[in-house]
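Subject: S-adenosyl-L-methionine-dependent methyltransferase

B.,
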Amino acid sequence: MADGEATAAPKPDVEPEAAPPQLFSSGESLPTPAMSKPHDPIEHDSGVEHETPRHDSLASGRAVQAKANRTKETTPSPDAKQSLPPRVISPPPVMSQLASPNTAPPSNDSASVCPFQRDDQQAGSPEYQEEYDDPGSDLGDETASLTETINSQNYQYRYENGRRYHGFDDAAYLLPNDEREQERLEGQHQAWVMALGGRLHLAPLKQNIQNVLDVATGTGNWAMDFADEYPSAKVIGTDLSPIQPNFVPPNCSFIVEDSESEWIWDERFDYIHSRTLGSTWRDWPGYFRKCYEFLKPGGYLELHEFTFPFHCDDGTATAENPMMQWSIYFNQAAARGGVDMEICERLDPLLRDAGFVDVAKRRLRLPFTGWSEDPNEREYGAFYGRIFDWGVSLALFTRRLGWSRERAELFLVDARKDAANIGVHAYIPLYVYTARKPATAR
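Prediction pasted inline below.
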């Protein structure tokens, strides 16, 4: 919580025991030193200066090109320099650490690997619907040898409020996994790369890095881009939902799992990466202990996180603004599932408690509508404001806060209008943490 007197948010129309988080007014200091531009030096305890990432206008082009490379196969000319291995059609992402050994592998049919059902195809469907595919067909000896059986719950979906959700422990993760959400995740990946000046990471990694784990990979964009950039690496991405593509780099694969459960890897990793776990993660100390255990001595952990509620430094976004209220309601709904949305601004002491050294923390801003005077913030802020989907909160508001769908939809209309107003100077605080397991550790 920042020093000074905080501006109290109005009490939302929910159960009285849920007190709204406090917002920061223009006269207050923020939890970390206020930054007018995202170029401030990294705070660290190692005495080693990290290079400040470059921001350039080509970052978004790089991200768009990366996506284009995944959507179609290109045929280089015979004289072209082969700097990266060709992408391959990988086995379907059906591996799972928690799979039952008696469960047969699923069909290699695209509809069963990841059955999409668009909202406009659900006319007449009930408000609540569950669906999963029968994992009864044989993949063949060659494919089966490359994959493990899966828990059918990971392929069980529910449809609600016009959106699709995964069916695995839905009390823990209430964000959708449909095509609209996948588009948001792909745009979020591009925004992070732009915010880091075209980089995928800040940790000082060796060029010949070997084993890499991407926790909660989502659509797998980061994992695939990292595999392209580091051909020597074996990159594994994990997620609750099997929404990753099959056309991937040859050194990249995906596994369906709940990373908040026990880890049973047979290998250790040189680098573990995760992004935006803050909206769902309940046990950060436990996560850091597992990362420490499964990192090789000298290996790095890197976190890309954000916090709610939104911040405003000049008073143009007050507690009454619908966009600000949206972030407050989001925090309240997350808290009812055991998630502290504000903890991501203070993860550094937890990393040290887990045994990590060289803990570094960088704070950035993501300004909606691109209102910032800083050209780099303006570029990626405006981009993210255009692709952000306010409807990701529907299940949180209806299931956790008890709202009707009609009430939630009407409120989201006001939030979208507020977010489009360039005169409202609200932003999302972003945090990047890097930490190293001591080389002397076991």
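The domain at 59-69+86-94+177-436 is CATH 3.40.50.150 (Rossmann fold).

T.
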